[in-house]
Amino acid sequence: MTRARLLVGLTAATCAGVLAACGTLPPRPDPVPTSLDAVQRRDEAPSSAGALSPDGFDAAQRMAVRIRNVGCGSLSTGSGFAIDDHTLVTNRHVVADSAALEISTYDGRDVRAQTASTAALADLAFVRTVDPLPAYGGLAPLDPVPGASVTVVGYPRGSRLTMTTGSVIGATTDPLHENLGEVLVTDAQVDLGSSGSPVLDAEGRVVGVVYAKGQDGASFVVPVSTLRAMLDDETQVSAAPTCGD
User: Fold this and answer.
1) Given 3.50.50.60, 2.40.10.10, 3.40.50.10750, 1.10.10.10, which CATH number is that of 148-230?
2) Residues 6+ apart with CB under 8 A from 157
3) For 22-48, what is each residue's pLDDT tens digit?
4) 125 and 188 in contact (C-beta within 8 Å)?
5) pTM, two decimal places
6) How does pLDDT run across 103-146, given as a tens digit for each residue?
7) Residues 92 and 239: beta-carbon distance below 8 Å
8) Which of 43, 125, 138, 202 could serve as a FRET partner for 85 with CA atoms 20 to 30 Å apart?
9) Do the Cβ atoms of 101 and 131 come closer than 8 Å?
10) Do 27 and 68 touch, CB atoms closer than 8 A?
């Protein structure tokens, strides 16, 4: 397995020295575009849960959010998705070392973050929001098997909402040692900023969370079984570290 790299879309390097004394932040990314790019690896259309809303987006698209991590002298972007009216799932490295989290929905609406917590044994994080989220999805009961078709929904490079399709290649020991267990490997295309994107099965259920990309183009996914384990055990999560910690 080739070495993988994390998929937070970095727009500025963290400055050296005392973080609280850092200088002016770089410009923020452009507002979230309100149209959709569909990048399909096969002839079939990506599946998702729920019917189309009046604006033409379905539930799988509406559940995904863009997350901007404003740190002390740094700015990065990632993706996330809702699992209930006020809870988002993303990656630990997407929310770590932040001074503020800025969340945008598929239609460009800003959602205020309330609290963020991170898992101890996986690259997962949970963000509670003040404002209600537009849509949320369900979790699949089991991890997908090799060969299963999947769809990834997210905001690569902090830009346009994008759906890519692919299939599960198999499982491997986490190459970044962020999960302390097996992770899934898919050939669905992801890019910088795709960290935290939901991986959906043919019924639109979440089967995993994108967290890294290999140099060979494969993407690495925290399986839904690990996500369920973290959600079921509150002792496995704690407050996310901020840039002042």
Assistant:
1) 2.40.10.10
2) 9, 77, 191, 192, 193
3) 334 445 556 655 444 544 333 333 334
4) no
5) 0.81
6) 999 988 999 999 999 998 899 999 999 999 999 989 999 999 99
7) no
8) 202
9) no
10) no
Alpha helix (H) ranges present in the chain? 59-62, 92-95, 224-232
Read off the amino acid at residue 156: P
3-state secondary structure at position 156:
helix
Query: Of 88, 106, 92, 96, which is closest to residue 70 (Cα–Cα)?
Result: 96
Give the residue among 156, 157, 159, 222 at the shortest CA–CA distance from 186. Answer: 222
Q: Which 3 state secondary structure label does DSSP give 192?
A: coil
> Which tokens go with 7?
């998929």
Q: What's CA 80's distance to the chain center, in Å? A: 4
User: What's the CA dihedral at 19, 21, 23, 27 to 10 degrees?
Assistant: 50
For residues 212 and 91, give the distance between their C-alpha atoms in angstroms, rounded to a whole number. 10
Q: Is residue 244 pLDDT above 80, yes or no?
A: no
Which regions of the chain carry the CATH code 2.40.10.10? Answer: 59-135+233-239, 148-230
Whether 82 and 131 have beta carbons less than 8 Å apart is answered as no
For 102, the 3-state DSSP assignment is: strand
152-204 pLDDT, tens digit per residue, is 999 999 988 999 999 999 999 999 888 888 999 999 999 999 999 999 999 99
DSSP state, 177? S
Q: Where are the alpha helices (DSSP H) in 69-142?
A: 92-95
